[in-house]
Structure formats: structure tokens, C-alpha cells
UniProtKB/TrEMBL annotation, chain A:
Keywords carried by this UniProt record: Cell membrane, Membrane, Transmembrane, Transmembrane helix, Transport
Main location: membrane
Entry GO terms, CC: plasma membrane
GO biological process entries: transmembrane transport
Record has Hydrolase as a keyword: no
Source species, domain of life: Bacteria
ABC transmembrane type-1 domain: residues covered: 75-287
Entry protein name: ABC transporter permease
Residue spans crossing the bilayer: 12-35, 79-100, 112-132, 165-186, 207-231, 266-287
Membrane topology qualifier: Multi-pass membrane protein
UniProt record similarity statement: Belongs to the binding-protein-dependent transport system permease family.
TrEMBL record, chain B:
The organism's place on the tree of life at top rank: Bacteria
Organism phylogeny: Bacteria, Bacillati, Bacillota, Bacilli, Bacillales
Position of the signal peptide: 1-23
Organism: Paenibacillus oryzae
Gene3D superfamilies: Periplasmic binding protein-like II
Protein name per Swiss-Prot or TrEMBL: ABC transporter substrate-binding protein
Keywords: Signal
Amino acid sequence: MGFRNRSYKRAEVITAYCFLFCAIVLALLFIVIPIGRAFTYGFTDYYLLKPDDKAFIGLDNFYRIATDEVFLKSFLNTLQFVVLVVPLQLGMALGLAMIVSKKVIGNAFFRTAYFSPAVLSLVVISILWTVMLNPTSGLINEILTGLGLPAQPFLTSTTQAMPTIVFISAWSGCGYQMMIFLAGLTNIDKSLYEAADIDGAGSFKKFVHITLPGLKPITMFLVITTTIQAFKLIVQPMVMTGGGPDYSTMTMLQYIYEYGYRHRNIGYASAITLVFTIFLIAVSMVIKRLFKEEKA
Amino acid sequence: MKKILVVLGCIIFILQATGCSSAGSGKNGNNKIVVWTQAAADHPEGKMFASRVERYNEANPDKLQVEIQNITRAGAGSGYIDKLNAAITANDMPDIFTLDGPDVAAYVDAGVIGELDSYMSNGFKEGFTDSIIQQGTVDGKFYAMGYSDSAVAVMYNEDMIKALPADIQAKVPAADEDWTWEQFVALARDIDTYAKSSSDAAFADYKLAVSTLLSDIASGSYETGTYYFTPLLWGNDSNIVAEDGLTVDGVLNGEKSLQALTSYAQLFAGDPLASASEPEKAFHTGKAPLAVAGFWYVNELKDNYPNLKYRTVRYPKMSEGYSGSYTPSGSWTFVKSGKITDEEKSKQVVEVMEWLTNDQAAEEYYAANGAIPSRKNAISVINTNTDNAYYNEAWTVMQYQVEKTNKARPVSVGYPYLSETFAKDVLLKIAQNQAADSETIQKYLDDTVKKLDMEFAKYKK
């Protein structure tokens, strides 16, 4: 309330508007204009090499989406990735955070080790794993066969490729979330655990009734950010599988990129972008609503 | 006030950073000639272009000076092509730029590259090899000067072949003999059977019979697959697209294509002889005794694997009776911007392109990079009399193919999509699903034709 009554100096007002202007320019350049352009291009036959020769084609691109099997496959792949990676990555992050929160020898080393994949480039990680997962000469299959287990096709199998990418993505991303969970764990009042000890509660009960509720706000934040991040999957499949085998790892973003740049069909790529953007807005609204209910 | 200036500075910086840099015809005016190449500045190819350009500028101080800009490509050329396409969209093209041969038709159709016939010196075009002329010609007009040609042959590991029983060894042809794909697959099958039951030291690292680089398709370099294996269709008197560059129904899914691709699929039938996820450098490191090998293998093996004893034989023909050209060819080319309106500048641009692709340049490129000359008069520069017999044999085979059997990839406005779809939805799918029966392959072809027809509809309007 005090803000309303407070009078600002002219210089402060100008500075505030300048910062606001900066944010608006960025939003216009990178969000509003591109979405607006995608909206208009989605109704045209815009071919990248003929930018001056666009013709309005009505809903043709959208009819094509409705019959495009690869679009549907890419969309389902993306959903599958999100559904699998979010719980796995957060579960791994929480588990690691609980491990490194214990005061044991070598704790600092393990924290760094678990966090290190988060600072590596996704391209580097993808290349490393591609080499390790090579079915005929990769390290992982060498280990499996050394243990008397059958070699696996991993990235070359339509059924194993996506789960493999999910695992690698969760592994590479969980270190960052581990650090956030770790901060959350240190904020939980220690007296709650002491009281639970006096009441004779076991480790599992303490985890369910103290740790998890204590981490709820952080978990909600991580669910939202990880979900949004997961929908943007492109690097790992692009580097590791090229979207294959048989489109089993093709994601929406990669499909949009391929149509827009490799196939130069900006009109169709824009239409797909538009459909996917609307879907993402809907998902964001649902998450926001859930978050609000949670706060209430 | 200071804060305001900082904020304004930030905005100006952002606007500049998001804007397009000047490079090409749109802003060059008549002050200089800008050349874009996908070759990195520190790559032998980049260095040789820079050297040619430097000498041109020195020899022609009174003319427009040439400036070369290296925009390194990533993987299948994406980084370079993305930037080039952005420049085209912004009407900010360089005066001369490089393009992969099969992409030329799409850029001609878009009107972004200019024809060269009316500006070229007399007889210059005829100096290119036939496949380079084919590759650069669209609707009877010449648009692209190839600065190198290419070739693909079959290589085999001599130590591994010598360890085989005599009856299998006898199946390996001589370097100057034609052979068929069926004979090639039969040889690979025999090697594989022997290798899996033998304890011979030559096969200690054996992983698969044939290295095909199909793993390149899986990682996004689709063109490698089309470049390597479309010739199997050519050798059966078929193709992936009709002469018009857009009709695929009845061609790609026609009987002869199906026959050729069913034969290709025998590499993956039963115990697979090749893999879409083969180990890196499988042939170079003795993991595969046979390789479908591009010309770049020759220098790579000489420089980095000097102890590998390899032999080279011709690319297998699909049908023994086929008498036309059928071996892989073509490479990157120089093209001229179609937006140059000044006649004098156009003449000089073509003069620079000739300087970058003439006989002397082709000889220099071969010496610097092992690139196969694209000029008829320069092919003889390939040295097949060194003290390295393996090297000599490889170049002899490739030289023969360039002169006698090389064929350009299809000229199609929809080529990039055509190539990628064929590589991914047919070649790779057959390999990954180990599909070897003609019914399944026919289905793959019909599905691919459906996709291509849908995409090509925009060109047929």
C-alpha cells in the first residue's frame, strides 16, 4: 500500500520505464513478433527460397497436419518423453540430494560429480553416449556381454531408443535439480525430525511426512520448469538418432526445424509451430491452475 | 542519465545483434566481390580457395577485389546452408557461393542463382567432366561450376582377405574388373560366415562384414546414403525420380527400383553383414574387411592409417547387363548470385568463378586436398605412380570411374527432401528393421512416394 502513496523522483520513473521498455523490446522481438509471424505464415505456402512469393492457402497446412503421421508420431514422442523424464529426473535428483545431504566423507566430491553433467554441453553428452551405446563396439554392450548378458541395440531400436534418451536426459539434468532439492532439504526444520525420532518414526515415515511436505513448494517449481524444458527436447535426438529409428525419437521441435530449414517449407513448419504453441499454452495454463490450487 | 544511456545502449546492442549482418549483393554494391564457402578457413579446402583468391587479387589490382568468407558447415552442411538461406530471405546474398551439386536445381527454381553460359569463356564449360556438367545443368542452362568431382569404390582389407580359404579369395575381383552387387553380397556373406567361426588373428577385431557409413544417415548426414546407394538403382536402369525431377510414382516404387533395393536389403537379411550403427572407422581399424569407400578414404588411409593394407575394386553394378553410367559422382560447386544486375560485375564474377575452377585450380586442389579434379584436362594429374601401391590402385580405380562410369545425382527442385526421405525412409529403414522381403520394401517405397508427392505438390502448381 505504501508504494501507491510513495512519490517517485522523475529520474527513477524514467529508469523504470527504460527497463520496462527493454523487456518489452525483447518480448516483442523474440516472442510476440515470431508468434505473430508464425500465425500468418501458417496460412501460406511460404517456401524459404522464395520469400517474396508467398500465397494464402487457407487451412491447407492444417489439413495436412491432420493427416501427417510423422507429426502425430512426433507429438506422441514428445509427450512420452515429458511423461517419462519429469518423474525420473526429479526422482533421481531427490535421491541424490538425500544421499549428498548426509555428512559423510567424500561428500563434496560426490556433490561435484553428480552436478558435473549439468554443466556439460548437451551436444558433448549426446556424442559421448552415442559412442558408449554403439551396439557393436560400445562400452555399455562390452560390459553387458562381459557379464554374460545379451548385447542391446539401444539407440538403433524403435522400442529402446526413446527410453534410452529419457535416461540420458534425466542423468544429465538431475544434477542441477539435486542442488535445488539440497537447498530445500537444509531449510526443513531439524526439530521436526527430532520430534519424529522421539515418537519412534522410522526413516520412511519421516521421508513421507516431513521431507516430502517440506519440499512441496520446491517440487512444484521443479515440476513446472522441468516440464517446460522437456517439451523443448531437440538436441539429444538430433545428435544421437536423427529422430530415428523409424521416427521413434522425432520430437516436435526437431520436426519443426526439419520442415522449416532442411525442407525449407516455412509455411507448413509455421502451422505446426502454431498448433504446438497453442498446446503448450494450454499445458502452461493447466500447470498454473494446479499450482494455484496447491497454494490455496 | 547514466542509467538511461546504459539502457539505450543495451537496446541498440540487442537490435544490432538480432539484425542481419551485411555480406552480399544487397549491400556490396560494386565495391567488391564476396565469396561464401562452406569450407573452414583452416581446412585444406578453405586454404586453397584463399590462396587462389589472393593470387587473383594480386594479378588484378584494377578490378573489383575478391573477399572470401568461410562459414563452416556442421554435419550435413546445416550451419552454412541455414545462414545462406537466411541471407537469401533477407535479400543479402554473396556474389558467389558454394552449393552441393544436387541442391543447384532448387536454387535455380527459386531464382536466386544466375546462369553462366552467356558470361563464360569459350569452351570453358566443355572442360568439365560429363557428370559435373550434368550436375550443373538445369533446363539446358549451366549454373554451377564444380570445383571437384568424387568417386566411390569398394575397398577390402588385404590381410583379412588373405586369411580366407582360397575359394572365397577367388571371389574378389581384380581392380580392372566389373562385378555385380550380387557377387559383392555373396563375398560379404562368405567372409562373415568364415570370420564368425575362425580364430585367425586377422579377424580378431572383426565386427561386421561391410562398412557402409549408414551410421551417417542415422546421425543426420542423409546425403551420404543417397550418394552411396542411389547408384544401385541406376545400375538396374532405374532411379529415385523421373527425368522431370518431380515424378516419383512408378519410378521410385517401380519394379526395377524394388529389385535393386531388395538386393541392397540382402546386406541386412538374417545375420546382418552391415549395420546402421557401425563402429567409427570400422574399415580403417580392421573391424570390417570390406567398405563402400568414398574417395576421401585414400588420403585418410595414407595419412592416418599407413599400416593398413587395403585394396580397391570397382563399385559393384546392380545388373550385369546394364551398359549406362552408374557410379556415384558430384560434389560442391561455385554458383553466381542471381541478384547481380550489373553486367560488368556479372562478367567479373564469372571470371572469378573460372579462376577458382579452371584446370590449374583443379590440379592444385588435388595436390592440397586429394580432391578429384572436375576438369577433364586435370584428371591426369592424379598420381598413380607413387611408391605406395595401395594408393596407386585406389586412384586408378577412381580415375577410371570418373572418366568412364560416373553419373550425376538427379536434378530435382525438390532434391534435398527427396534425398533425405529416400535415405531415411527407405535405406535406413531397411537397414534398421532388417527388412529383406520385397513386400515390406514395396510398402516402404509406396509410403515414401506418398510423402514425396505431398511435398512436391507445391512445385507442380
